[in-house]
Design a protein that fits this description.
This protein is 33% helix and 19% strand. The protein is α/β, with parallel strands linked by helices and 329 residues long. The termini are far apart.
């Protein structure tokens, strides 16, 4: 038998080695002992002492900073409010606006919130906008743009009656209502717009009803054209959704009512100008006028009107009827 065969045979008969699992060896890097526990306790005491020292330092610094802030700014008379200049024009008095700001003298201008003061003013229905400026010399300037009333708004359903203080409602050119607290001579001269179909009136919020906007425009246009007190429209009534009645300040025995449509107001005002030109020249006293019909203008008068030289519709020659062209067959 060759050596190679013997080697292979002995290798085949050799028993396999069995590995024994060894237990892991754990090293404790933080062993506990009385000495180590004493050192850890000493380190904790030192750390607590340092934290306490830093906390005391922070409290002292904060107190000194607060004291310095109060002495340099809050208690400095230079930054305390000493005068308020309110610049405005309108129904609200300066005293009323000052009360709405809730400002008092000796208020610090550095800590004063101008936005908060402005919002207090603009919450008033009469205030359109407010601008505030401070100069850090004890002075505060407030510019208030008030809504200027152009008419009274009367609505029996909402219990607004004009012109009365407390129950009256004023309205500006944009259609924003505002309560009337005191009736002045200027307010008594304003026209009245009677509109019972208003569903809700919120003071300070614009009424976007197109009928109301048309009535405001009509009142403005009519009174801008007035040349005598008898031509001033004192009351505009909105009886329905297609007409507006203008009532004038005339004697009780000679009332005057002019009816306008809500559409094509500019064209109706042009017709109004032509009629009033003749009325002034001939001293007509109208009882009623109606500009809703487009082909003519129905009118009634107090007394017999002067119509000399006018070409009336009943005397106007009829327009010739065109003859149809002849066709040859």
């Amino acid at each position: 038998m060759s050596l190679s065969k013997k080697g292979s045979k002995s290798a085949a008969q050799r028993p396999a080695r069995v590995r024994k699992d060894l237990a892991p060896h754990v090293i404790d890097y933080e062993p506990e002992s009385p000495v180590i526990r004493q050192q850890e306790a000493e380190m904790a005491r030192r750390k607590g002492y340092r934290n306490a020292v830093w906390l005391i330092i922070a409290i002292v610094v904060a107190a000194l900073g607060k004291l310095a802030w109060e002495e340099a700014f809050e208690k400095n008379s230079r930054f305390l409010l000493k005068a308020i200049d309110i610049q405005t024009r309108g129904p609200l008095s300066k005293q009323k606006l000052l009360s709405a700001t809730a400002l008092t003298l000796d208020t610090n201008l550095l800590t004063l919130s101008l936005g908060e003061v402005r919002s207090r003013l603009e919450r008033l229905p009469h205030v359109k906008s407010a601008h505030i400026r401070r100069d850090y010399n004890g002075s505060l300037t407030i510019k208030v743009a008030q809504r200027l009333p152009v008419a009274w708004l009367e609505c029996s359903k909402q219990k607004y009656h004009a012109p009365l203080s407390g129950t009256g409602c004023l309205i500006d050119a944009e259609g924003v209502p505002m309560p009337c607290e005191v009736v002045t001579k200027e307010f008594l001269a304003l026209p009245v717009i009677s509109f019972d179909a208003v569903s809700r009136i919120d003071p300070g919020k614009r009424l976007a009803d197109p009928l109301l906007q048309t009535a405001l425009q009509l009142a403005k246009e009519l009174n801008a054209r007035a040349q005598t007190p008898a031509e001033i429209a004192r009351r505009l009534v909105i009886p329905n959704s297609w007409s507006i009645e203008a009532h004038y300040a005339t004697a009780a025995s000679e009332p005057k009512v002019i009816t306008f449509g809500v559409d094509d107001l500019e064209m109706q005002l042009e017709r109004y100008d032509r009629v009033m030109k003749q009325a002034r020249a001939r001293q007509w006293k109208f009882a009623t006028l109606n500009f809703i019909p487009q082909g003519n203008t129905p009118a009634t008068f107090h007394g017999a009107p002067d119509i000399g030289g006018l070409t009336l519709a009943e005397n106007r020659p009829a327009s010739p009827v065109p003859t149809p062209p002849l066709t040859r067959r």
